[in-house]
Specification:
- The protein has 162 residues and is mainly α.
- The protein is built from 7 helices and 2 strands.
- It has helices at residues 7-22, 32-39, 46-55, 80-88, 112-128, 131-142, 154-159, and strands spanning 59-62, 68-71.
- The chain is globular, with a radius of gyration of 19 Å.
- The two termini are 21 Å apart.
- The mean pLDDT is 87.
Length: 162
Protein backbone atom coordinates (compact mmCIF):
# COMPACT_ATOMS: atom_id res chain seq x y z
CA UNK A 1 0.00 0.00 0.00
CA UNK A 2 1.40 3.35 -0.97
CA UNK A 3 0.65 6.00 1.64
CA UNK A 4 2.68 8.72 -0.05
CA UNK A 5 1.06 12.12 -0.47
CA UNK A 6 0.73 13.65 -3.92
CA UNK A 7 2.83 16.73 -4.63
CA UNK A 8 -0.21 18.90 -3.90
CA UNK A 9 -0.78 17.05 -0.61
CA UNK A 10 2.85 17.62 0.38
CA UNK A 11 2.64 21.32 -0.46
CA UNK A 12 -0.67 21.81 1.35
CA UNK A 13 0.71 20.19 4.51
CA UNK A 14 3.76 22.46 4.34
CA UNK A 15 1.63 25.57 3.82
CA UNK A 16 -0.60 24.57 6.75
CA UNK A 17 2.51 24.09 8.90
CA UNK A 18 3.69 27.60 8.00
CA UNK A 19 0.32 29.05 9.01
CA UNK A 20 0.32 26.99 12.20
CA UNK A 21 3.79 28.19 13.19
CA UNK A 22 2.67 31.80 12.63
CA UNK A 23 -0.49 31.34 14.72
CA UNK A 24 -0.47 33.82 17.56
CA UNK A 25 -4.15 33.87 18.46
CA UNK A 26 -4.31 37.57 17.52
CA UNK A 27 -5.21 37.15 13.88
CA UNK A 28 -1.80 37.67 12.29
CA UNK A 29 -1.74 37.07 8.54
CA UNK A 30 1.23 35.50 6.77
CA UNK A 31 2.29 36.75 3.35
CA UNK A 32 2.32 34.32 0.44
CA UNK A 33 6.01 34.93 -0.21
CA UNK A 34 6.83 34.13 3.44
CA UNK A 35 4.93 30.82 3.26
CA UNK A 36 6.76 29.99 0.02
CA UNK A 37 10.17 30.86 1.48
CA UNK A 38 9.71 29.16 4.84
CA UNK A 39 8.38 25.92 3.36
CA UNK A 40 10.37 25.86 0.12
CA UNK A 41 7.26 25.97 -2.04
CA UNK A 42 7.17 27.12 -5.66
CA UNK A 43 6.35 30.82 -5.29
CA UNK A 44 4.13 30.93 -8.37
CA UNK A 45 2.10 27.93 -7.15
CA UNK A 46 1.77 29.00 -3.48
CA UNK A 47 -1.43 31.05 -4.02
CA UNK A 48 -3.18 27.93 -5.39
CA UNK A 49 -1.83 25.85 -2.49
CA UNK A 50 -3.17 28.33 0.05
CA UNK A 51 -6.38 28.54 -1.97
CA UNK A 52 -6.82 24.80 -1.41
CA UNK A 53 -6.73 25.39 2.35
CA UNK A 54 -9.09 28.33 1.96
CA UNK A 55 -11.58 26.33 -0.12
CA UNK A 56 -11.61 23.65 2.61
CA UNK A 57 -12.39 26.29 5.23
CA UNK A 58 -9.05 25.83 7.00
CA UNK A 59 -7.53 29.18 6.03
CA UNK A 60 -8.75 32.63 5.16
CA UNK A 61 -7.26 35.39 3.06
CA UNK A 62 -7.15 39.14 3.44
CA UNK A 63 -6.08 41.44 0.62
CA UNK A 64 -3.89 44.46 1.05
CA UNK A 65 -0.77 45.60 2.79
CA UNK A 66 -1.63 43.92 6.11
CA UNK A 67 -3.13 40.91 4.37
CA UNK A 68 -2.08 37.38 3.59
CA UNK A 69 -3.36 34.06 4.90
CA UNK A 70 -4.14 32.69 8.33
CA UNK A 71 -5.82 29.63 9.78
CA UNK A 72 -9.54 29.89 10.53
CA UNK A 73 -9.14 27.93 13.79
CA UNK A 74 -6.31 27.34 16.25
CA UNK A 75 -3.84 24.67 15.03
CA UNK A 76 -4.81 22.42 17.94
CA UNK A 77 -8.38 22.36 16.58
CA UNK A 78 -7.40 21.29 13.03
CA UNK A 79 -6.64 17.64 12.35
CA UNK A 80 -4.02 16.46 9.92
CA UNK A 81 -6.79 14.41 8.31
CA UNK A 82 -8.61 17.65 7.44
CA UNK A 83 -5.47 19.11 5.89
CA UNK A 84 -4.68 15.98 3.89
CA UNK A 85 -8.26 15.63 2.66
CA UNK A 86 -8.26 19.28 1.57
CA UNK A 87 -5.63 18.31 -0.99
CA UNK A 88 -6.20 14.61 -1.61
CA UNK A 89 -9.95 14.25 -1.21
CA UNK A 90 -11.63 11.68 1.00
CA UNK A 91 -8.93 9.35 2.28
CA UNK A 92 -10.09 5.82 1.51
CA UNK A 93 -9.22 3.16 -1.01
CA UNK A 94 -11.31 3.38 -4.16
CA UNK A 95 -10.17 0.08 -5.63
CA UNK A 96 -10.32 -3.50 -4.47
CA UNK A 97 -7.12 -4.47 -2.69
CA UNK A 98 -7.14 -7.87 -4.42
CA UNK A 99 -8.15 -7.11 -7.98
CA UNK A 100 -7.49 -3.39 -8.39
CA UNK A 101 -11.03 -2.93 -9.68
CA UNK A 102 -14.46 -3.36 -8.17
CA UNK A 103 -14.75 -6.12 -5.58
CA UNK A 104 -15.99 -9.34 -7.18
CA UNK A 105 -18.59 -10.64 -4.69
CA UNK A 106 -21.36 -8.04 -4.86
CA UNK A 107 -18.88 -5.25 -4.15
CA UNK A 108 -17.20 -7.11 -1.27
CA UNK A 109 -14.11 -9.31 -1.67
CA UNK A 110 -12.51 -11.62 0.89
CA UNK A 111 -10.11 -8.89 2.03
CA UNK A 112 -12.74 -6.13 2.14
CA UNK A 113 -13.62 -6.20 5.88
CA UNK A 114 -9.96 -6.19 6.90
CA UNK A 115 -9.08 -3.46 4.42
CA UNK A 116 -11.93 -1.24 5.62
CA UNK A 117 -10.78 -1.69 9.23
CA UNK A 118 -7.18 -0.79 8.29
CA UNK A 119 -8.34 2.29 6.35
CA UNK A 120 -10.44 3.45 9.28
CA UNK A 121 -7.45 3.01 11.62
CA UNK A 122 -5.40 5.32 9.42
CA UNK A 123 -8.24 7.86 9.26
CA UNK A 124 -8.66 7.70 13.04
CA UNK A 125 -4.94 8.21 13.68
CA UNK A 126 -4.76 11.19 11.32
CA UNK A 127 -7.99 12.58 12.75
CA UNK A 128 -6.58 12.49 16.29
CA UNK A 129 -3.34 14.19 15.27
CA UNK A 130 -3.57 17.95 15.27
CA UNK A 131 -1.81 20.45 13.09
CA UNK A 132 -0.31 21.87 16.30
CA UNK A 133 1.26 18.50 17.14
CA UNK A 134 2.82 18.15 13.69
CA UNK A 135 3.93 21.79 13.79
CA UNK A 136 5.68 21.10 17.11
CA UNK A 137 7.58 18.17 15.58
CA UNK A 138 8.46 20.35 12.58
CA UNK A 139 9.78 23.02 14.96
CA UNK A 140 11.92 20.42 16.77
CA UNK A 141 13.31 19.08 13.49
CA UNK A 142 14.23 22.59 12.35
CA UNK A 143 16.07 23.02 15.66
CA UNK A 144 18.00 19.80 15.06
CA UNK A 145 16.02 17.69 17.54
CA UNK A 146 14.82 14.35 16.21
CA UNK A 147 11.48 13.01 17.46
CA UNK A 148 11.24 9.59 19.09
CA UNK A 149 9.94 7.13 16.53
CA UNK A 150 7.76 4.14 17.37
CA UNK A 151 9.48 0.74 17.39
CA UNK A 152 9.15 -1.19 14.11
CA UNK A 153 6.19 -3.54 14.01
CA UNK A 154 6.49 -7.32 13.81
CA UNK A 155 5.54 -7.12 10.14
CA UNK A 156 8.51 -4.88 9.37
CA UNK A 157 10.85 -7.40 10.95
CA UNK A 158 9.23 -10.27 9.00
CA UNK A 159 9.51 -8.34 5.75
CA UNK A 160 13.21 -7.72 6.31
CA UNK A 161 13.80 -11.47 6.73
CA UNK A 162 14.19 -11.64 10.53
Amino acid sequence: MNLTLSRLGDYVIRAALALASAWDGKGRYLKIRKVAEDMELPRSYTPQILGTLQKAGLAEAKAGREGGYRLTRPPNKISILEVIEAAEGYLASEHCALTGGPCRWDDVCALHPTWVKASESIRTSLGRTTLAQVSSVDHDLRAGRKPALPAPSHRARVRSGR
